[in-house]
Amino acid sequence: METELTIDSIAAGGDGVGRAEGMVAFVPRTAPGDVVRARLQSAGRFARGVLDAVVSPSPVRVAPPCPHYERDRCGGCQLQHLALEAQHEAKRRIIEDSLSRIARREVAVPPVVASPREWRYRRKLTLAMRRRGSAWIAGLREFDDPDAVFALQDCPITDERVVAAWRAIIDAAELLPRDARELRGAVRLLDDASVAFTLEGGERWPTAERFFDAVPAIAALWWQPAGATRRRLMLDRRSDAAPGASFVQVNPQVGALLADAVVAAAQSHAPRTVVDAYAGAGDVALRLAEAGARVVAIELDAEASAYSASRLPAGSRAVAARVEDALPEALPAELVIVNPPRAGLDAQVTATLEAALQGAGPAPRALLYVSCNPATLARDLARMPSWAVRRVQPFDMFPQTAHVETLVELVPASPPPEPSA
Length: 421
Ligand SMILES: C[S@@+](CC[C@H](N)C(=O)[O-])C[C@H]1O[C@@H](n2cnc3c(N)ncnc32)[C@H](O)[C@@H]1O
Prior knowledge:
Elements (H helix, E strand, L loop, with lengths): L1 E9 L5 E5 L2 E5 L7 E9 L2 E11 L10 H5 L12 H18 L22 E9 L2 E5 L1 E2 L2 E5 L10 H12 L10 E8 L5 E6 L7 H7 L3 E7 L7 E5 L15 H16 L5 E5 L5 H8 L3 E6 L2 H10 L5 E4 L2 H8 L4 E4 L8 H9 L10 E6 L2 H9 L4 E9 L9 E8 L9
The chain binds S-adenosylmethionine (SAM).
The site of S-adenosylmethionine has 16 residues, from strand 15 and helix 8.
Protein backbone atom coordinates (compact mmCIF):
# COMPACT_ATOMS: atom_id res chain seq x y z
CA MET A 1 0.00 0.00 0.00
CA GLU A 2 1.33 3.43 -0.94
CA THR A 3 0.92 6.14 1.68
CA GLU A 4 2.26 9.51 2.80
CA LEU A 5 3.82 9.76 6.26
CA THR A 6 6.03 11.95 8.43
CA ILE A 7 9.24 10.48 9.78
CA ASP A 8 9.70 11.11 13.53
CA SER A 9 12.94 9.39 14.48
CA ILE A 10 15.67 6.92 13.51
CA ALA A 11 15.49 3.32 14.72
CA ALA A 12 18.40 1.06 15.64
CA GLY A 13 19.72 -0.10 12.28
CA GLY A 14 19.16 3.33 10.68
CA ASP A 15 15.61 3.16 9.26
CA GLY A 16 13.41 6.24 9.66
CA VAL A 17 10.30 5.59 11.79
CA GLY A 18 6.84 7.10 11.30
CA ARG A 19 3.20 6.18 11.84
CA ALA A 20 0.70 5.36 9.10
CA GLU A 21 -2.57 3.43 8.86
CA GLY A 22 -2.36 2.55 12.59
CA MET A 23 1.09 0.96 12.14
CA VAL A 24 4.64 1.88 13.09
CA ALA A 25 6.43 2.06 9.75
CA PHE A 26 10.18 1.62 9.18
CA VAL A 27 11.42 3.32 6.01
CA PRO A 28 15.13 3.14 5.11
CA ARG A 29 16.94 6.26 3.86
CA THR A 30 14.54 8.76 5.46
CA ALA A 31 15.28 11.56 7.94
CA PRO A 32 13.41 12.80 11.04
CA GLY A 33 11.17 15.62 9.77
CA ASP A 34 10.83 14.24 6.23
CA VAL A 35 7.37 13.89 4.72
CA VAL A 36 7.67 10.92 2.37
CA ARG A 37 5.63 8.73 0.07
CA ALA A 38 6.37 5.08 0.73
CA ARG A 39 5.09 1.64 -0.23
CA LEU A 40 4.31 -0.19 3.01
CA GLN A 41 4.23 -3.91 3.59
CA SER A 42 2.40 -4.59 6.82
CA ALA A 43 3.37 -7.18 9.41
CA GLY A 44 0.79 -6.74 12.19
CA ARG A 45 1.36 -3.50 14.09
CA PHE A 46 4.54 -2.84 12.11
CA ALA A 47 5.31 -2.17 8.46
CA ARG A 48 8.42 -2.14 6.29
CA GLY A 49 8.45 0.68 3.77
CA VAL A 50 10.15 1.37 0.46
CA LEU A 51 10.79 5.08 -0.11
CA ASP A 52 9.14 6.28 -3.34
CA ALA A 53 9.57 10.04 -2.97
CA VAL A 54 10.52 12.72 -0.48
CA VAL A 55 7.49 15.03 -0.58
CA SER A 56 8.96 17.60 1.79
CA PRO A 57 12.58 17.19 2.93
CA SER A 58 13.62 17.54 6.57
CA PRO A 59 15.97 20.45 7.41
CA VAL A 60 18.52 17.84 8.58
CA ARG A 61 18.53 16.04 5.20
CA VAL A 62 21.76 16.47 3.18
CA ALA A 63 22.97 15.20 -0.20
CA PRO A 64 25.00 12.00 0.43
CA PRO A 65 28.50 12.60 -0.96
CA CYS A 66 29.27 8.95 -1.82
CA PRO A 67 27.98 8.00 -5.30
CA HIS A 68 27.48 4.38 -4.21
CA TYR A 69 25.01 5.40 -1.48
CA GLU A 70 22.09 6.09 -3.82
CA ARG A 71 23.20 4.70 -7.18
CA ASP A 72 24.20 1.26 -5.84
CA ARG A 73 22.02 1.28 -2.69
CA CYS A 74 25.20 0.52 -0.71
CA GLY A 75 24.46 -1.24 2.57
CA GLY A 76 27.71 -0.10 4.22
CA CYS A 77 26.34 3.28 5.43
CA GLN A 78 22.80 4.02 6.62
CA LEU A 79 22.88 7.71 7.62
CA GLN A 80 24.83 9.60 4.93
CA HIS A 81 21.64 11.51 4.07
CA LEU A 82 21.60 13.05 7.59
CA ALA A 83 23.67 16.04 8.73
CA LEU A 84 26.31 14.90 11.22
CA GLU A 85 24.61 16.59 14.21
CA ALA A 86 21.37 14.76 13.36
CA GLN A 87 23.30 11.46 13.16
CA HIS A 88 24.71 12.16 16.63
CA GLU A 89 21.28 12.89 18.08
CA ALA A 90 19.79 9.80 16.42
CA LYS A 91 22.49 7.61 17.99
CA ARG A 92 22.07 9.20 21.41
CA ARG A 93 18.32 8.52 21.26
CA ILE A 94 18.78 4.94 20.02
CA ILE A 95 20.80 4.21 23.17
CA GLU A 96 18.38 6.04 25.47
CA ASP A 97 15.37 4.23 23.93
CA SER A 98 17.05 0.79 24.12
CA LEU A 99 17.96 1.32 27.78
CA SER A 100 14.42 2.45 28.57
CA ARG A 101 12.43 -0.09 26.48
CA ILE A 102 14.58 -3.21 26.85
CA ALA A 103 16.54 -2.68 30.07
CA ARG A 104 13.87 -0.60 31.89
CA ARG A 105 16.59 1.85 32.93
CA GLU A 106 15.67 5.51 32.66
CA VAL A 107 19.04 7.15 31.98
CA ALA A 108 19.70 10.59 30.50
CA VAL A 109 22.28 9.70 27.84
CA PRO A 110 24.67 12.60 27.13
CA PRO A 111 25.69 13.70 23.60
CA VAL A 112 28.00 11.35 21.70
CA VAL A 113 31.71 12.06 21.65
CA ALA A 114 32.27 13.07 18.01
CA SER A 115 34.80 11.41 15.73
CA PRO A 116 37.73 13.72 14.89
CA ARG A 117 37.18 12.53 11.30
CA GLU A 118 33.78 12.41 9.65
CA TRP A 119 35.24 10.76 6.50
CA ARG A 120 38.23 8.48 5.73
CA TYR A 121 38.30 7.22 9.34
CA ARG A 122 38.14 3.45 8.68
CA ARG A 123 41.42 1.57 8.78
CA LYS A 124 39.82 -1.77 7.93
CA LEU A 125 37.53 -2.63 5.02
CA THR A 126 35.98 -6.07 4.44
CA LEU A 127 34.54 -6.71 0.97
CA ALA A 128 32.68 -9.52 -0.78
CA MET A 129 34.54 -10.71 -3.88
CA ARG A 130 32.79 -12.27 -6.86
CA ARG A 131 34.03 -13.70 -10.11
CA ARG A 132 32.44 -11.97 -13.14
CA GLY A 133 33.54 -13.91 -16.23
CA SER A 134 37.33 -14.00 -16.10
CA ALA A 135 37.58 -10.92 -13.84
CA TRP A 136 36.84 -10.32 -10.14
CA ILE A 137 34.88 -7.53 -8.49
CA ALA A 138 35.13 -6.53 -4.84
CA GLY A 139 32.32 -4.62 -3.24
CA LEU A 140 29.65 -4.18 -0.62
CA ARG A 141 26.13 -5.57 -0.50
CA GLU A 142 22.98 -3.61 -1.34
CA PHE A 143 20.97 -2.61 1.73
CA ASP A 144 17.69 -4.04 0.40
CA ASP A 145 19.15 -7.07 -1.38
CA PRO A 146 21.99 -8.60 0.66
CA ASP A 147 22.72 -11.13 -2.13
CA ALA A 148 23.57 -8.36 -4.60
CA VAL A 149 27.18 -7.12 -4.59
CA PHE A 150 28.25 -4.05 -6.58
CA ALA A 151 31.83 -3.18 -7.62
CA LEU A 152 33.25 -0.60 -5.23
CA GLN A 153 35.20 2.28 -6.82
CA ASP A 154 35.82 4.19 -3.61
CA CYS A 155 34.60 4.20 -0.02
CA PRO A 156 34.83 7.74 1.39
CA ILE A 157 34.61 6.59 5.01
CA THR A 158 37.71 4.42 4.49
CA ASP A 159 41.35 5.53 4.63
CA GLU A 160 42.67 6.12 1.10
CA ARG A 161 45.59 3.73 1.68
CA VAL A 162 43.16 0.90 2.38
CA VAL A 163 41.15 1.74 -0.75
CA ALA A 164 44.39 1.88 -2.79
CA ALA A 165 45.40 -1.56 -1.46
CA TRP A 166 42.01 -2.94 -2.52
CA ARG A 167 42.54 -1.57 -6.07
CA ALA A 168 45.95 -3.28 -6.21
CA ILE A 169 44.38 -6.54 -4.99
CA ILE A 170 41.75 -6.44 -7.74
CA ASP A 171 44.49 -5.69 -10.31
CA ALA A 172 46.24 -8.91 -9.17
CA ALA A 173 43.00 -10.90 -8.97
CA GLU A 174 44.00 -13.46 -11.64
CA LEU A 175 46.32 -14.82 -8.90
CA LEU A 176 43.46 -15.51 -6.42
CA PRO A 177 42.32 -19.13 -5.82
CA ARG A 178 41.01 -20.50 -9.13
CA ASP A 179 38.59 -22.95 -7.49
CA ALA A 180 36.37 -20.22 -5.96
CA ARG A 181 33.61 -18.08 -7.44
CA GLU A 182 33.08 -16.12 -4.20
CA LEU A 183 35.61 -14.96 -1.64
CA ARG A 184 35.73 -12.49 1.24
CA GLY A 185 38.68 -10.23 1.90
CA ALA A 186 39.65 -7.84 4.69
CA VAL A 187 42.30 -5.14 4.27
CA ARG A 188 43.60 -3.61 7.47
CA LEU A 189 46.03 -0.69 7.65
CA LEU A 190 49.14 -1.58 9.65
CA ASP A 191 51.17 1.61 9.19
CA ASP A 192 51.69 4.42 6.65
CA ALA A 193 52.70 2.15 3.80
CA SER A 194 51.49 -1.36 4.51
CA VAL A 195 48.38 -3.42 5.12
CA ALA A 196 47.42 -6.90 6.29
CA PHE A 197 45.14 -8.85 3.94
CA THR A 198 43.00 -11.74 5.14
CA LEU A 199 41.35 -13.86 2.45
CA GLU A 200 38.52 -16.28 3.24
CA GLY A 201 37.47 -19.00 0.80
CA GLY A 202 38.90 -21.25 -1.89
CA GLU A 203 40.40 -24.65 -1.24
CA ARG A 204 43.68 -24.52 -3.15
CA TRP A 205 45.85 -21.43 -3.65
CA PRO A 206 49.05 -22.39 -5.48
CA THR A 207 49.58 -18.79 -6.66
CA ALA A 208 49.49 -17.25 -3.14
CA GLU A 209 53.18 -16.35 -3.16
CA ARG A 210 52.93 -14.73 -6.59
CA PHE A 211 49.86 -12.80 -5.40
CA PHE A 212 51.80 -11.60 -2.31
CA ASP A 213 54.69 -10.42 -4.54
CA ALA A 214 52.30 -8.70 -6.93
CA VAL A 215 50.82 -6.47 -4.18
CA PRO A 216 53.75 -4.84 -2.36
CA ALA A 217 51.40 -2.91 -0.01
CA ILE A 218 50.47 -6.24 1.64
CA ALA A 219 52.94 -6.79 4.49
CA ALA A 220 51.09 -9.75 6.01
CA LEU A 221 48.87 -12.24 4.18
CA TRP A 222 46.46 -14.55 5.96
CA TRP A 223 44.27 -17.19 4.38
CA GLN A 224 41.32 -19.08 5.81
CA PRO A 225 40.49 -21.80 3.26
CA ALA A 226 36.81 -22.77 2.81
CA GLY A 227 35.63 -25.04 5.61
CA ALA A 228 38.86 -24.60 7.57
CA THR A 229 38.48 -23.71 11.21
CA ARG A 230 41.79 -21.92 11.76
CA ARG A 231 43.41 -18.99 10.05
CA ARG A 232 46.77 -19.84 8.60
CA LEU A 233 49.51 -17.23 8.32
CA MET A 234 50.86 -17.50 4.83
CA LEU A 235 53.43 -14.80 4.39
CA ASP A 236 54.72 -11.89 6.45
CA ARG A 237 57.27 -9.22 5.51
CA ARG A 238 57.28 -7.76 9.05
CA SER A 239 59.53 -8.44 12.01
CA ASP A 240 56.91 -7.22 14.53
CA ALA A 241 54.57 -9.92 15.88
CA ALA A 242 51.45 -7.71 16.30
CA PRO A 243 48.44 -9.74 15.17
CA GLY A 244 47.35 -8.66 11.68
CA ALA A 245 44.12 -10.62 11.39
CA SER A 246 42.61 -10.18 14.88
CA PHE A 247 40.08 -7.59 16.04
CA VAL A 248 40.99 -3.92 15.68
CA GLN A 249 38.87 -0.81 16.34
CA VAL A 250 38.09 0.44 12.83
CA ASN A 251 38.35 4.13 13.81
CA PRO A 252 41.75 4.61 15.47
CA GLN A 253 41.10 8.18 16.68
CA VAL A 254 37.84 7.31 18.44
CA GLY A 255 39.36 3.99 19.53
CA ALA A 256 42.03 5.99 21.39
CA LEU A 257 39.44 8.31 23.00
CA LEU A 258 37.40 5.28 24.09
CA ALA A 259 40.47 3.48 25.51
CA ASP A 260 41.40 6.64 27.47
CA ALA A 261 37.84 6.84 28.85
CA VAL A 262 37.89 3.15 29.86
CA VAL A 263 41.27 3.51 31.59
CA ALA A 264 40.16 6.72 33.39
CA ALA A 265 36.87 5.11 34.53
CA ALA A 266 38.79 2.02 35.71
CA GLN A 267 41.36 4.07 37.61
CA SER A 268 38.66 6.13 39.35
CA HIS A 269 37.92 2.91 41.31
CA ALA A 270 41.64 2.37 42.12
CA PRO A 271 41.38 -1.39 41.52
CA ARG A 272 44.23 -3.67 42.60
CA THR A 273 42.77 -6.57 40.62
CA VAL A 274 41.07 -6.37 37.21
CA VAL A 275 39.46 -8.83 34.81
CA ASP A 276 39.54 -7.51 31.22
CA ALA A 277 37.11 -9.79 29.36
CA TYR A 278 37.11 -9.82 25.52
CA ALA A 279 40.52 -8.15 25.83
CA GLY A 280 41.61 -8.28 22.18
CA ALA A 281 45.35 -7.60 21.83
CA GLY A 282 45.39 -6.39 25.45
CA ASP A 283 46.00 -2.64 25.05
CA VAL A 284 43.73 -1.61 27.95
CA ALA A 285 44.90 -4.56 30.10
CA LEU A 286 48.51 -3.48 29.52
CA ARG A 287 47.83 0.13 30.56
CA LEU A 288 46.11 -0.95 33.79
CA ALA A 289 48.83 -3.51 34.54
CA GLU A 290 51.54 -0.91 33.98
CA ALA A 291 49.69 1.37 36.42
CA GLY A 292 50.04 -1.35 39.09
CA ALA A 293 46.90 -3.54 38.86
CA ARG A 294 47.04 -7.32 38.56
CA VAL A 295 45.07 -8.01 35.38
CA VAL A 296 43.60 -11.19 33.90
CA ALA A 297 43.00 -10.57 30.16
CA ILE A 298 40.54 -13.11 28.69
CA GLU A 299 40.42 -13.38 24.88
CA LEU A 300 39.32 -16.17 22.54
CA ASP A 301 41.48 -15.25 19.53
CA ALA A 302 44.73 -17.20 19.98
CA GLU A 303 46.98 -14.71 18.12
CA ALA A 304 45.60 -11.70 19.99
CA SER A 305 45.87 -13.49 23.33
CA ALA A 306 49.47 -14.59 22.64
CA TYR A 307 50.37 -10.99 21.78
CA SER A 308 48.70 -9.81 24.99
CA ALA A 309 50.64 -12.45 26.99
CA SER A 310 53.93 -11.34 25.43
CA ARG A 311 53.39 -7.77 26.65
CA LEU A 312 51.77 -8.13 30.10
CA PRO A 313 54.15 -7.68 33.08
CA ALA A 314 54.66 -10.28 35.82
CA GLY A 315 51.62 -10.59 38.10
CA SER A 316 49.20 -10.20 35.18
CA ARG A 317 48.23 -12.91 32.72
CA ALA A 318 46.43 -13.57 29.47
CA VAL A 319 43.94 -16.44 29.19
CA ALA A 320 43.12 -17.72 25.70
CA ALA A 321 39.57 -18.95 26.30
CA ARG A 322 35.89 -18.11 26.04
CA VAL A 323 34.79 -15.59 28.68
CA GLU A 324 31.85 -17.92 29.46
CA ASP A 325 34.33 -20.57 30.61
CA ALA A 326 37.15 -18.49 32.10
CA LEU A 327 35.35 -15.70 33.99
CA PRO A 328 34.28 -17.71 37.09
CA GLU A 329 37.90 -18.73 37.76
CA ALA A 330 39.25 -15.24 37.07
CA LEU A 331 37.00 -13.73 39.79
CA PRO A 332 37.04 -12.26 42.38
CA ALA A 333 38.36 -8.96 41.07
CA GLU A 334 37.82 -5.39 42.20
CA LEU A 335 36.95 -4.27 38.66
CA VAL A 336 35.60 -6.11 35.63
CA ILE A 337 35.69 -4.82 32.04
CA VAL A 338 33.61 -6.47 29.31
CA ASN A 339 33.91 -5.48 25.63
CA PRO A 340 32.01 -8.16 23.70
CA PRO A 341 31.24 -8.39 19.95
CA ARG A 342 27.83 -7.24 18.59
CA ALA A 343 26.05 -10.34 19.96
CA GLY A 344 26.71 -9.08 23.48
CA LEU A 345 27.30 -11.22 26.55
CA ASP A 346 26.44 -14.90 26.72
CA ALA A 347 23.71 -15.56 29.34
CA GLN A 348 26.31 -17.50 31.36
CA VAL A 349 28.45 -14.35 31.56
CA THR A 350 25.62 -12.09 32.77
CA ALA A 351 24.67 -14.81 35.31
CA THR A 352 28.27 -14.89 36.61
CA LEU A 353 28.42 -11.08 36.87
CA GLU A 354 25.04 -10.94 38.62
CA ALA A 355 26.08 -13.72 41.02
CA ALA A 356 29.32 -11.85 41.81
CA LEU A 357 27.19 -9.34 43.76
CA GLN A 358 25.17 -12.02 45.55
CA GLY A 359 27.89 -14.44 46.65
CA ALA A 360 29.89 -14.70 49.84
CA GLY A 361 33.18 -13.61 48.21
CA PRO A 362 34.33 -9.99 47.74
CA ALA A 363 32.18 -8.22 45.12
CA PRO A 364 33.65 -6.11 42.29
CA ARG A 365 33.49 -2.37 42.96
CA ALA A 366 32.54 -1.61 39.36
CA LEU A 367 31.75 -3.14 35.99
CA LEU A 368 32.68 -1.30 32.76
CA TYR A 369 30.67 -2.49 29.76
CA VAL A 370 31.89 -1.36 26.31
CA SER A 371 29.25 -2.14 23.70
CA CYS A 372 28.95 -1.74 19.93
CA ASN A 373 25.25 -2.73 19.91
CA PRO A 374 22.70 -0.84 22.08
CA ALA A 375 20.11 -3.65 21.76
CA THR A 376 22.33 -6.40 23.19
CA LEU A 377 23.74 -3.96 25.75
CA ALA A 378 20.19 -3.24 26.99
CA ARG A 379 19.28 -6.97 26.99
CA ASP A 380 22.37 -7.73 29.09
CA LEU A 381 21.66 -4.92 31.57
CA ALA A 382 18.11 -6.27 31.95
CA ARG A 383 19.70 -9.58 33.02
CA MET A 384 21.82 -7.85 35.70
CA PRO A 385 19.41 -5.95 38.00
CA SER A 386 21.95 -5.91 40.85
CA TRP A 387 24.17 -3.56 38.85
CA ALA A 388 23.15 0.12 38.75
CA VAL A 389 24.06 2.40 35.84
CA ARG A 390 26.26 5.21 37.12
CA ARG A 391 27.27 6.73 33.79
CA VAL A 392 26.75 6.22 30.06
CA GLN A 393 28.98 7.73 27.37
CA PRO A 394 28.39 7.11 23.66
CA PHE A 395 31.18 7.49 21.08
CA ASP A 396 30.67 8.08 17.34
CA MET A 397 33.05 5.32 16.28
CA PHE A 398 31.31 4.85 12.91
CA PRO A 399 30.14 8.20 11.35
CA GLN A 400 27.68 7.87 8.41
CA THR A 401 26.50 4.48 9.71
CA ALA A 402 23.84 3.66 12.31
CA HIS A 403 26.40 1.93 14.54
CA VAL A 404 27.43 3.47 17.84
CA GLU A 405 29.85 2.52 20.60
CA THR A 406 28.81 2.96 24.25
CA LEU A 407 30.74 2.88 27.52
CA VAL A 408 28.59 2.12 30.57
CA GLU A 409 29.93 2.34 34.10
CA LEU A 410 27.99 0.13 36.54
CA VAL A 411 28.26 -0.11 40.31
CA PRO A 412 26.50 -2.42 42.78
CA ALA A 413 22.90 -1.29 43.25
CA SER A 414 22.31 -0.27 46.83
CA PRO A 415 20.21 -1.56 48.46
CA PRO A 416 20.02 -4.74 46.34
CA PRO A 417 16.71 -5.09 44.42
CA GLU A 418 13.96 -7.31 45.89
CA PRO A 419 13.97 -10.74 44.21
CA SER A 420 11.07 -10.86 41.73
CA ALA A 421 8.18 -13.15 42.66
C1 LIG B 1 34.78 -5.77 20.41
S1 LIG B 1 36.27 -6.69 20.44
C2 LIG B 1 37.11 -5.90 21.79
C3 LIG B 1 38.60 -6.09 21.82
C4 LIG B 1 39.38 -5.21 22.76
N1 LIG B 1 38.77 -5.10 24.08
C5 LIG B 1 39.62 -3.85 22.15
O1 LIG B 1 39.03 -2.86 22.61
O2 LIG B 1 40.41 -3.76 21.21
C6 LIG B 1 35.72 -8.21 21.04
C7 LIG B 1 36.81 -9.25 21.26
O3 LIG B 1 36.21 -10.39 21.89
C8 LIG B 1 36.76 -11.58 21.33
N2 LIG B 1 35.74 -12.63 21.59
C9 LIG B 1 34.62 -12.89 20.88
N3 LIG B 1 33.89 -13.84 21.51
C10 LIG B 1 34.57 -14.17 22.63
C11 LIG B 1 34.32 -15.09 23.71
N4 LIG B 1 33.20 -15.83 23.73
N5 LIG B 1 35.20 -15.18 24.70
C12 LIG B 1 36.35 -14.42 24.67
N6 LIG B 1 36.64 -13.52 23.68
C13 LIG B 1 35.76 -13.40 22.68
C14 LIG B 1 37.05 -11.24 19.89
O4 LIG B 1 38.06 -12.08 19.37
C15 LIG B 1 37.48 -9.76 19.99
O5 LIG B 1 38.87 -9.66 20.14
